[in-house]
User: Fold this.
Amino acid sequence: MVEIGLYSPASFGRVFRKAQSALQRSNGVERGHADRTATERTMDRHIVDSAETERLNALLVRVGRERDREAFIALFHHFAPRLKSYLQRLGVDAGGADEIVQDVMVSVWRRADSYDPALSAAGTWVFTIARNRRIDVLRRERRPEIDPDDPALVPDPVDPADRAVELEQDTERLHRAIRTLPPEQAELLRMAYFEDKPHSVIAAERNLPLGTVKSRLRLALARLRKAMGEE
Amino acid sequence: MTPLSMPETAGHQAPVHHPGDELLVAYASGNLAEAASLAVATHLALCPRCRHEVNRLEALGGALLDQMPAAPVGDDLLARIMGQLDAPAPVTPRPLPANTDARTDARRAKPAERPLLPQPLRGYVGGDLSALSWRRVMRGVEEAEVKCGPADGESGAKVRLLRIKGGMAMPQHTHGGSELTLVLAGGFTDATDHYLRGDFAETDNSVDHQPVADAGEDCICLTVTDAPLRLTGTLGRLLNPFIKF
Assistant:
């Protein structure tokens, strides 16, 4: 891991633990989450395996069912710093980002009872709340969405419950697939999600032909679909 | 033009023309403007395949969020949030334009009376087809504007429903920008492709086309244009000054 070189000798213990956990991961040994501190998890952007997904989903369920404040605080430590990164990447200043993070986390608390771990991972659910909040706050627009009870809605021939099977493993596979994307494709994917710009502007800024931007995005999505075992 | 009734089977025919990856990613990530989002979301109501795809793209957004580097948050942020947890939730208006009557009517509707306009479009229109006031554009073509976007802002995009008489050819035209089209009733043929209810078409300024409505039933489409279209045929050049598209 490149980042190890950035640590001072004083933090050797932490570096050692990180190196050890990286070694275990590279050996295919999944390290239990119980022995990691919240700080370590927050520091390391790469550790989101199925155990971690399960842990976050369970925390969110506890907040919804039991109004569990400790579970909520644990979710805060995981999501708040990531949400802030997300908002800053979208061009929000630090103070403004904190305010939106606050809104999003309060919404997480209030709406947690509607979270269904069979339908989405906690990260996905929080992402959609943050996405909608920033459309509301930053663009002052509404987000048109389907109404699941609409009689005009064409029903899904596949039972959603069948699609939810092994969601946690799917989430882990998705994380691995993103990590194995060629860097230029991964970067374009992040830009498509986290920069509120048309592809033509992204292309001009990066000195890339528009066709290249579009084809990299398509290639990235095709690789992810393949990794997820579909199409 | 006769009022439309939707055949029982029409609602369950799976669309074959879908929004491209770029549009679906932009919708799932929250980067698509409201007008274009309205066209995509209304397609989603008619297309289980794309609903599933958007769910997967949202899961991708969740995974990308999980992989974001952690940025330090303000020292007092957690305390501020904890202090808000017991405050009563503010009464917020529904985020989507919910026309109560339209919703209630729709719920009560028997299958045969299923509304032709799906949500979220029905909410933006303020009801089903009967809520629209059509304006004649030219022989065989009527339009009804759909209000969309922030009340104070001018997004530049135009959202409208078009009703084209069965068998009628639209004037040949090209676009200064892009055009999104979603078929809601009837059908049309554009070059070699055939579009029916739920089908979605994207055209940009490289396309000079002349869609032709299927014979029989009127063709009703939702269109979103981000710049005025330009008529290119002989007739079009004569009509251009008069048609405020």
